[in-house]
Amino acid sequence: MTYREARRTRELLEYSRFTWFFERLFWRLHQISPIRLFARGRIAHLSSEAFRQNPRVASAMRSRRVERYLTVWITLESLLLASFALGLAVPHGVTAALAVIRIVDILQAVVNLMVFDQLRTPQTLIISSAVRTLVLSMINYLELIICFAILYESMPHQLAGANDWTDALYFSVVTQLTIGYGDVTPIGPAKAVAAVQALFTFAFTVLLLGRIITVLPRIESVMRETPEE
């Protein structure tokens, strides 16, 4: 740990031990994220030397690599759904593991970006584009629906009223949107998964709404108020 990181850690501990704990937790999740294996350490983080030397160039390079990484995951998720549709025998343990890894990865990325990255530096947080971040967040939101659907599909006979993978996808949508018609219901371990999905997506939605608010243009009235004479 560098002197700067140690100082920020002391400041966080003085401010709130709960904040320090969750900041360290999500930093560790970032450290073990598959993106670091995918890019072989080339994904520069905010606290890296690359960002300190040239934030604009480092941010642009990071953006392109993150988008390639996201494309790989979307392709993999699409292939898993296609395998369900074609009735291919994919080990449930493999599909469940991939879904869990991606769900945790999305959560740590969003929480780090929107909450903890700013705490890790005394400087202004630099991102490539606020609108781009919003678009990627919306894509991640849709990814969560797919990943939880894959997770439900990897748990046979745990959704009462479900007949095939489309019902698992349908249940994931209504759970994430907190609709809950009751025609498909979880049983056994799927109850815990549904509860986790509800909690995850609630936190994700709060963070996403915060990001939307920062991106929206400022609204001003044409009829400005003038002081009374």
List the SSEs and their pairings:
Layout: H1 3-15, H2 17-31, H3 34-38, H4 49-53, H5 55-86, H6 92-116, H7 130-153, E1 159-160, H8 165-176, E2 185-186, H9 189-215
Q: For this structure, what is the CATH class?
A: Mainly Alpha
Rounded Rg: 21 Å
Shape: globular
CATH topological fold name:
Helix Hairpins
Overall mean pLDDT: 81
Domains (count): 1
Largest sheet: 2 strands, antiparallel
The structure class reads: mainly alpha
Number of helices: 9
Q: What's the helix-strand series? A: HHHHHHHEHEH
Helical residue percent? 55-70%
Instruction: Show unreliable segments.
Output: none
Give the strand line-up of the largest sheet: 1-2
Proportion in β-strands: under 5%
Question: How many runs of DSSP E, i.e. beta strands?
Answer: 2
Walk me through this protein's architecture.
With 229 residues, the protein is mostly helical. It has a single domain (3-215), classed as Orthogonal Bundle (Helix Hairpins). Helix content is 69%, strand content 2%. It contains 9 helices and 2 strands. It has helices at residues 3-15, 17-31, 34-38, 49-53, 55-86, 92-116, 130-153, 165-176, 189-215; strands spanning 159-160, 185-186. A two-stranded antiparallel ribbon has the order 1-2. Helix 1 packs across helix 2, helix 2 packs across helix 6 (92-116) and helix 7 runs antiparallel to helix 9 (189-215). The mean pLDDT is 81.
